[in-house]
Amino acid sequence: MKSHLIFLIALLFIYQINAQETLIGFTPENTQKQITLETKFDAQLSADNLEEWMKLMSARPHYVGTEFGEENAKWIANQFKSWGYDTRIDTYHVLFPYPKIRSLELTSPTQYTTKLTAVPVEGDPYTGQGDELLPSYNAFSIDGDVEAELVFVNYGIPKDYEELEKLGIDVKGKIVIAKYAGSWRGIKPKLAAEKGAIGCIIYSDPKDDGYVRGDVYPKGAFKNKTGVQRGSVMDMPTYPGDVLTPGYGATKNAKRLEIEDAPTITKIPVLPISYEDAQPLLAALDGAVAPTSWKGGLPITYHIGPGPAKVHLKLEFDWQLKPAHNVIATMKGIEFPDQWIMRGNHHDAWVHGAADPVSGMVALMEEARAVGELAKAGNKPKRTLVYCAWDAEEPGLIGSTEWVEDHKQELQKKVVAYINTDGNGRGFLGAGGSHSLQAMVGEVAQSVTDPQKGVSVHDRRMAVNLIRGGTDKFELYALGSGSDYTPFIQHAGIAALNLGFGGENAGGEYHTIYDTYSHYKRFKDPEFAYGVTLAKTAGRIVLRMANADVLPFEFKQWHSTIAMYLDQVIKSCETMRADVEKHNKLLDKNAFELAADPSKPFVQPQRKARIPHLNFTPLMNTLDVLKMTVEEFSSKDFTKLSKNQLVELNKMLMKSEHILTNETGLPRRSWYKHQIYAPGFYTGYGVKTLPGVREAIEQENWEEAQEQIMLLSGTLKNLDQHIKNMSAL
Amino acid sequence: MKSHLIFLIALLFIYQINAQETLIGFTPENTQKQITLETKFDAQLSADNLEEWMKLMSARPHYVGTEFGEENAKWIANQFKSWGYDTRIDTYHVLFPYPKIRSLELTSPTQYTTKLTAVPVEGDPYTGQGDELLPSYNAFSIDGDVEAELVFVNYGIPKDYEELEKLGIDVKGKIVIAKYAGSWRGIKPKLAAEKGAIGCIIYSDPKDDGYVRGDVYPKGAFKNKTGVQRGSVMDMPTYPGDVLTPGYGATKNAKRLEIEDAPTITKIPVLPISYEDAQPLLAALDGAVAPTSWKGGLPITYHIGPGPAKVHLKLEFDWQLKPAHNVIATMKGIEFPDQWIMRGNHHDAWVHGAADPVSGMVALMEEARAVGELAKAGNKPKRTLVYCAWDAEEPGLIGSTEWVEDHKQELQKKVVAYINTDGNGRGFLGAGGSHSLQAMVGEVAQSVTDPQKGVSVHDRRMAVNLIRGGTDKFELYALGSGSDYTPFIQHAGIAALNLGFGGENAGGEYHTIYDTYSHYKRFKDPEFAYGVTLAKTAGRIVLRMANADVLPFEFKQWHSTIAMYLDQVIKSCETMRADVEKHNKLLDKNAFELAADPSKPFVQPQRKARIPHLNFTPLMNTLDVLKMTVEEFSSKDFTKLSKNQLVELNKMLMKSEHILTNETGLPRRSWYKHQIYAPGFYTGYGVKTLPGVREAIEQENWEEAQEQIMLLSGTLKNLDQHIKNMSAL
Fold it and tell me: Contact B295/A592, CB-based, under 8 Å?
């Protein structure tokens, strides 16, 4: 028996060596050290800390400019100090509107005054904090006092306006009412204003996060009839951050735009409301019945209008500069102090923000504490770690953006990668970011155990992908926007990741007074097990990047991803072409008119312009060459380089993401420099990959599309040369 | 100027000759006569008659056994007589249950007593007829008194029970509540009973035909909160018609089954309710939240249960024999009196039945009146016309079924085809039936003008097909069940068609007290223009079949349709095989368990059995041979045959549909003889083409599937020989 056991242990040992001797970027020897370090790291992590800190930090509302927010920042800073970090608070002075007047009434054909207030619920004392709770509003709505007929515009996204056009309905001079969801909220007033609307109401339909989804709070996790989602509506796809200081830090004495000149404040007033408040407004609409896909979950027939419902919307804000306190905690690397691994999460919330952002913040802090413990025990990182707790993320990624803008040159020189987290909960790993880091993240995901199922978080993710009809290939999603990675990757061209668990934590609390510890504890991650798992995952990524012999950038997976994006873009042209041909053929046959119900309004669709054939060959050829280049690069064993050569190689690897940017930026939004990833101009958070080319095609701007193809090809050629230079080492 | 005009007229004349000299089945000479006849026929039709007759016939409820129903039958008979038809009333004595006790209460955890009564509405005096309105119930529910926990089963169709199984929910000993729609209603209690449920409630969800679809009655056409759909739940997929006399006519002295032995009465009590009555029951459910696709439009979270909602359902019926009065009106053909073109529509209704069936009945009557006028003017049909107004269609196609069973042998000898109509409204031509008639129906559709758009009803249908992503090839849909064509085609093997207009007449009045003249006039076909168009369409088909030199059966389109069905069946096997392989692969990877949320109930799915490869080659070979045979047949010019040969050919053509039947019928339901078309055993009205083979595959009964392939191949070989015999003439 005993000899069998020894044999088994030996087998296990051999297996472990074999399985792990190839940790990406590590020599076999350093792999073993690193694995030992990670085991020690895991042992430090305590779910109790996460829970205790969440209670502390989400005890009261802490949006930017609040005293409690500042207290939180100071408390976070003190924590970091106690764990051995050099910690400072970098404060910026940023414009933040606080609502003074919020009034919305149905004035015709019946009268209804909206309540605009969510009710406290039993069992959740946080919801009973009265006036301290930030009133529900959309930050960076312009002031306004408008009265007009109402039009229901579904989600208020481009294809909804196409549908309205088909029905012959114009929103010019009207106030639109749009459902939350379907796009980032800021797109709704932006597009409504472009179409001539004079006001915009956004409401949460029960189909999207209310009773249709599940039981409502406090019985269940979903939105009760009084809940209202707050949120920023600044034009972030143009630029995020302080609206008065585009492209540079909002320091105390920075030069500022006049408020009326700030291009990212909305053009029309916007107000979010609950579904209890929305129902009388929607019920008072008449006109065409909404298309099936537009219909929500209220017990009414959804009509589009315009009118006879008429509403009066009045909004006035107190526009003040508020201090945004970013906590910056540094642990200097012992070998490469000028190579920084950055890690961040925001600390400000719309109200209590237990899930968003505190659940991510406490995981980051526990990770940092454990790293501090390791350092105290002599395991200091080779590279410098910078932990950040951002302020003013909610109103528009303001804290992080101002800081990145303010430190851009230094960051571009020193930062290896920025790893972001935000809200977190029970479920599956979601990881997005630079695809040169995909292989490393996949490797990390295989080494972290899912707390519910006992397999790796990688394997659980793959299982759910398979069940949903996908593949079992680990992939990073592409980053659009919606959290603090944006200034790093899309403005500064720094490799970035965004990590979080979720999928078993659905609810309707997002940006409402119901995002509390009480709600989180019941519905999101009761044991804080996924908080610990997030700390393990992000912590491993930080530690591997900090200690790797060769920085773990990998270009074969990067290449196949970019090739897939190009394929998508080419196919989208073909689809557009086929659609146009089909559409025009239907017009030739007069099919639209013949199929139309004469008792309903009908607008004969326009003939569509031919979709020209774009010349994609420069991109195809560049990608073909790149393929050979990355294959050669991947075949090298860099661990055998001399120390100096390794230093040189790592410096070059750090720059590889920046090569994918272009200093002139994207057309009409020069703040966005990255040529591979950007938030969509008309989707907001939703990513557009190869954005210059893709969006020109979507807007049918063929000349620009061809220019962008050439530009992107040039960018990719630069990377090709850069990788060749690295291979030559 | 004048010479130009003459030239134009000459051109027009030549064009007309050319365009129409090939009317299917007619010599060029007789084509011209027929077209002239059809022009005269059209000129006779008056929309005013349709409206006047609808008001008359739908003035009061007229379900089988009512005095008003009998009055209607007599009045219809007198009308036919006045138009020159030999008219009689054939009466059968059929079991019809009238509700004595209807009681449904929520007994726990809260109390609610359902109202079970729709309210009268302003502007519609018919809805105020009080006790004369037939109470809402499902005919051929068994009597019962049950109390149990409730389970929500979505539409209560097979895939819903698969979903319940995944969730570990059993309905054994429970009462199920299912939404109307998704299948024929009778499937719901049938399947519930098979799964062990002891009662079944069916309700109309507002998402399916209530406020979600559009404004409710009386503001709009859809179902208000009190409306209840009546309807039969007898097991029609086993056999329709009188439950006590399967396969033979329910004549006065016919031998009858005991009620307790009647296999088509439900096994458990069933009651339909309104959404007002359903809401408290559904709201009292707890347990798993229903899957997204199950959720309806009520302002609640849909839970599945079981319980804690408990309901008490008590039903008792008065089971009496009632007289069903079929009106049979004959106009003898002057050349071929023993070749009958049959035409029918039912006259009984659940309540007033303005749309269902009176809108179709009045179109049939106006058509018959016009044909009568033509006959009086000397244009008597060559073949015999038989116009039928069926009674007792609503409780289970009873009037027509008993009549067909009673006259089966004569009908099989004499009937060329049966053309059915039922409810009708504004919109697009829908035509289903024997595919040997497809070419002829398509030709007719091209010669009838749409009253709203001025193009042919064929072209309008094609336009809507194209807009919906289909092709512009005219196709008959395959007949399942749901109206009186069933006994003709599926039992007697007589070629049949079903015709109607619709698509711009949606509403929620079906089988409720709101299907009145007032509702019809506002929402269905205000000008009765589509009633006249239906008369034109069906009338042309009747007249062409009555007068054709060669009966207009065509087998090339028939063949390509059957070949497509075979292709579907073969592909369905491949899809099943791929699904099973994928499912088992997911099990191998333990993906179901890993992806499952441990806070929710989870049942590990079973490994699925391999899908064997069936040998379809006998069918493929037979269809290949048939292809050559029908091509040869189609290449012949039969108009050049001698008169005697023509008589012989037409006799053989009349038999061609019957050759597609098999006297032993389908497995487990021998009443259904047709081998190409049948209502699905678990879909009800929904058709299953090549039913013996297709349903054996769906039930994974591989031995039976292979047997049915051989059987069907034999049937098709018989047709092949039959067509060869015709070609040899």
Answer: no
pLDDT band of A313, cuts 50, 70, 90 = very high
Quick one: which of B477, B495, B355, B469 has its CA closest to B415? B495
Number of domains in chain B: 2
Nearest chain B CA: its distance from A48 CA (Å) = 21
CB atoms within 10 A of CB B316: 15
Q: Which of A212, A217, A589, A602 to mutate to test the interface with B (most CBs of B within 10 A)?
A: A212
Count CB neighbours of A644 within 10 A: 9
pLDDT band at A117; cut points 50, 70, 90: very high
Residue A640's pLDDT band, with cuts at 50, 70 and 90, is: confident
How does residue B640 score in pLDDT terms, banded at 50, 70 and 90?
Answer: confident
Residue-wise pLDDT tens digits, B566-601: 999 999 999 999 999 999 999 999 999 999 999 998
Average per-residue pLDDT for chain A:
96
ipTM: 0.93
> pLDDT confidence of A637, banded at 50, 70, 90?
confident
Average pLDDT of the segment spanning A118-132:
97
Check pLDDT > 90 for residue B330.
Answer: yes
Mean per-residue pLDDT for B604-612? 95
The last residue of one of the domains, among A319, A345, A376, is A319
Per-residue pLDDT at B324 exceeds 60: yes
Residues near B518 by Cβ (< 8 Å), separated by ≥ 6?
B123, B124, B125, B126
Residues whose CB falls within 8 Å of the CB of residue A149, separated by 6 or more in sequence, listed in order: A174, A175, A305, A306, A307, A308, A309, A310
A–B interface: beta-carbon pairs under 8 A: 102
% residues pLDDT > 90 (chain B):
95
* CA–CA gap between residue B644 and residue B539 (Å, rounded): 28
Give the integer Cα–Cα distance in Å for A229 and A246. Answer: 27
The residue among B446, B456, B464, B539 whose CA lies nearest residue B499 is: B539
Best mutation target among B301, B450, B582 (most A Cβ atoms within 10 Å) is: B301
Q: Can you give the pLDDT at residue B4?
A: 53
Of A462, A467, A591, the CB nearest to B466: A591
User: Interface of chain B against chain A, CB under 8 Å?
Assistant: 206, 211-216, 220, 222, 289, 295, 297-301, 426-427, 452-453, 455, 459-460, 462-464, 466-467, 472, 504, 586, 589-595, 597-599
Please report whether residue B599 resides in a domain: yes
Whether residue B589 and residue A289 make contact (CB cut-off 8 A), yes or no, is no
Chain B contact set for A599 (CB, 8 A): 426, 504
Q: Extract the tokens encoding B545.
A: 């079949």
The CATH number that applies at residue B280 is: 3.50.30.30
In chain B, which residue's Cα lies nearest the Cα of A465? B595
Query: pLDDT digits over A12-41, tens only?
Result: 444 444 444 689 999 999 999 999 999 999
Under the phi-then-psi rule, with left for phi > 0, alpha for psi from -120 to 50, and beta for the rest, what region is A498?
beta
Instruction: Identify the helix (H) or strand (E) that includes residue B718.
Output: helix B702-727
- A497: nearest Cα among A516, A484, A515: A484
CATH code where residue B690 lies: 1.20.930.40
> Where a domain ends, among A278, A304, A319?
A319
Q: Which residues in chain B touch residue A586, judged by CB atoms under 8 angstroms apart?
A: 466-467
Residue B516 lies in a domain: no
pLDDT at B11 over 60: no
Are B297 and A297 inside 8 Å of each other by CB? yes
Contacts of B223 in chain A (CB under 8 A): none
A137 occurs within a structural domain: yes
Task: Confirm whether A563 is domain-assigned.
Answer: yes
Domain carrying residue A304: 98-319
Contact criterion met (CB < 8 Å) for A594 and B472: no
* Inter-chain residue contact B594 with A464, CB threshold 8 Å: yes
